[in-house]
Amino acid sequence: MKFIQSLQNPQVKHWKKLSTKKERGKTFTYLLEGFHPVEEALKEKVVLEIILEEGVTMPDSWDIEGLPVTTVAHEISKALANTETSQGIFAVCRMKKQPSKIIGKRFLLIDAVQDPGNIGTMIRTADAAGFDAVILGKGSAEAYSPKVLRAAQGSHLHVDLLKGDLNMWIEKLKEADVPVYGTALDNGVSYREVDPGDSFAILVGNEGSGVNPDLLAKTEQNLYIPIFGKSESLNVAVAAGILMYDFAMRD
């Protein structure tokens, strides 16, 4: 097993670069941190390399046959970590290829949500609610950024992650006979008043300004979640979770 103790090592510099969007986009790889996310990545066979802090051991049940494993000094582990209390395990993973067409029945569309914690939480909830894909529109936090991955806790491996112009994706959904439900107070109805059926897409928007009006004009129906207290609105990840679970449990 290879051991690295210098922060100036070229391989360490490459790993650190994976914290940048530019390097991830160039190599189509990303750095995953933590035992549970790495274990999920191993199951999906997207791991290219494992990095362990000195003194940290992997479970005997993990299938790592053929994978390079590098042990590193604590200082390197600390430099790679995106958490305050790192578990000292990382994996370099390849990104899944983005499908060019609609596959599945349940979709979450995200318009310009900038907070990576919200994006990661919605990916994790979409996975838990049995959704097939999360589609990230322009202005949204990148799916493979460290903070998104930390919040998603491996769920980014279980759903398709698509990106691009939501106008295009809405048209593709319509062509596939998948109704798109927006989220807005104006011209909206309570989410309990619609019957989404088995196949549907939910569109949520920016934390401050909501969904782009041009996108809302293309939906089947716009929905709102009633507020019973004095809060003006719900966090976008919470609202998305309510809608995804309610729609998924209507069968």
Structure report:
The structure is a single chain. With 251 residues, the chain is α/β, with parallel strands linked by helices. It has two domains: 2-94, 60s Ribosomal Protein L30, Chain: A; 106-248, Alpha/beta knot. It has nine helices and twelve strands. The chain has helices at residues 10-17, 21-27, 35-43, 74-80, 116-128, 146-152, 166-175, 213-216, 236-248, and strands at 2-4, 29-33, 47-53, 69-72, 89-94, 106-111, 133-136, 160-163, 180-183, 188-190, 200-205, 221-224. Strands 8-7-6-11-9-12-10 form a seven-stranded parallel sheet. Strands 1-4-3-5-2 form a five-stranded mixed sheet. Helix 5 (116-128) runs parallel beside helix 6 (146-152) and helix 5 (116-128) runs parallel beside helix 9 (236-248). The longest helix has 13 residues, at 116-128. The mean pLDDT is 96. InterPro entries: Alpha/beta_knot_MTases, MRM3-like_sub_bind, Ribosomal_eL30-like_sf, rRNA_Methyltransferase, SpoU_MeTrfase, SpoU_subst-bd, tRNA_m1G_MTases_N. One of its GO terms (molecular function) is RNA binding. Belongs to the class IV-like SAM-binding methyltransferase superfamily. RNA methyltransferase TrmH family. Residues 31-99 form the RNA 2-O ribose methyltransferase substrate binding domain.
